[in-house]
Specification:
The chain has 430 residues and is an alpha/beta fold. Helix content is 42%, strand content 15%. It is globular.
Length: 430
């Protein structure tokens, strides 16, 4: 054994382990977590809007009445009662299924991992949006997939670009295994696919024989009208649908799910049992008790109102304070807006100066595997109070103005060194 003084096992790791690394900007967020810093970075749900006393009484009653069951091992597929209740939840976005089609997971992040494990060999192509969810990118790269970004516009994934990406990958002799998309209130872009766009994307996946992986953690958190109809509602065999209670109840419970065709479901259960034996029985039954005894639809409406107020505070502040040349998306739900900086500015290079000015965001490069996104950043409005959001935007606008002055004087700002490999985000940055 050779290794190094810091890690004697370094020569024994699998190749994929050497391709995994923390984000280049993670260290800055240890500073950004200070209370004086306005963080517009974290995708943390505002759990303070939950009736905590009710949840406490639910958990207490569960332990008193069903303690031996709650504290015991459970099914690798998940509690059957909870799976039946999940059917009611996903029915809100048009998805119909059988309880046996559902695999309960430790958050939808685990579902992403299981699907990738089941479908992808090293070198297989996964097509993802440009930009895409950082946690998904980390999973795909950890399994040594060839991640290919596909262009987006104001309505999400561009069908013509998707068809071209499939053709280019196959012309290069590669296997395309998955199309990964967040169609509703996208993380990080904040855009939503309309019905026609969803139909086009589904038609391409069907024509090309590629599994469509639909990630829908924000689907019930729209600010106007009915929730967008899931793509899975129109194809039970070609779409694997992922969801989570992290955004609609509490992220700390870590309860998510995958709705999958029969053959895929069997493989997911085997993979889940190999990884964790079973998801937490206690948290599953806690969620089940909550769904059975509490007005969960009304609680989602409360979250919608909270996030809409904060979205409005963000957009109004951006409109009032941002310098000319700055652009941003207008989300109809979810947690995020995607900002494009004026020409010549680099969001990654600017971040230390933003933190020094007591405001934080996530640079756009974290949402790509190929170095794109230097002119972009993601702003999250879900957690700070509206007044804090306004103050954060004021501080950010001042930093951008200063960067513009520097760029006009000395040329474009310089970025931190580009790092390759899987970027592993802290949970609150997702």
């Amino acid at each position: 054994m050779t290794g190094s003084r810091l890690d004697p096992w370094v020569d024994s790791y699998a190749a994929r382990a050497h391709n995994m690394r923390a984000s280049e900007i993670r260290a800055l967020f240890a500073v950004a977590s200070r209370p004086e810093v306005v963080s517009l970075a974290g995708g943390m749900p505002f759990v303070q809007a939950l009736p905590v006393e009710m949840l406490a009484s639910t958990a207490q009653r569960l332990l008193y009445e069903r303690g031996p069951q709650a504290l015991q091992y459970g099914s690798g597929q998940g509690d059957v009662t909870l799976r039946e209740q999940i059917l009611e939840v996903i029915g809100e976005v048009g998805v119909t299924a059988h309880p046996d089609d559902i695999v309960v997971t430790t958050g939808s992040q685990m579902a992403l991992d299981l699907v990738t494990r089941v479908f992808c060999d090293p070198g297989d192509v996964v097509l993802v949006e440009a930009p895409s969810y950082v946690g998904a990118l980390g999973v795909f790269r950890a399994y040594e997939c060839d991640v290919v970004h596909v262009a987006m516009d104001e309505e999400g994934l561009v069908p013509s670009a998707l068809s071209e990406a499939v053709a280019a990958a196959r012309a290069a002799g590669k296997r395309v295994k998955l199309i990964y998309t967040i169609p509703s209130f996208h993380n990080p872009a904040g855009v939503t696919q309309g019905p026609a766009r969803r139909a086009e994307i589904l038609a391409i996946a069907q024509r090309e024989g590629i599994a469509l992986l639909e990630d829908d953690p924000y689907g019930l958190l729209g600010f106007e009208g009915e929730p967008p109809r899931a793509i899975r509602a129109d194809d039970a065999e070609g779409v694997i649908y992922l969801g989570s209670f992290s955004k609609t109840i509490a992220s700390g419970l870590r309860v998510g799910w995958a709705v999958a065709p029969h053959g895929v479901r069997e493989k997911l259960v085997l993979a889940a049992e190999a990884a964790v034996l079973c998801p937490s029985n206690y948290t599953q039954l806690t969620v089940s008790e909550y769904l059975a005894t509490q007005p969960w639809r009304e609680q989602i409406k409360t979250f919608q109102e909270v996030y809409r107020e904060r979205r409005d505070a963000l957009l109004e502040s951006l409109q009032a304070l941002m310098p000319e040349g700055t652009r941003w998306t207008i989300p109809a739900g979810g947690f995020y807006s995607w900002v494009t900086l004026p020409h010549g500015l680099d969001a990654t290079a600017m971040l230390p100066r933003a933190v020094a000015n007591l405001v934080a965001y996530v640079p756009g490069t974290g949402f790509y595997v190929d170095g794109q996104g230097r002119q972009n950043l993601r702003l999250s409005y879900c957690y700070p109070e509206p007044d804090r959001i306004r103050e954060g935007v004021r501080r950010l606008a001042a930093v951008i103005e200063s960067e513009l002055d520097l760029a006009q004087t000395f040329g474009t700002t310089r970025s931190l060194n580009q790092m390759t490999g899987s970027s592993v985000p802290a949970p609150d940055l997702q």
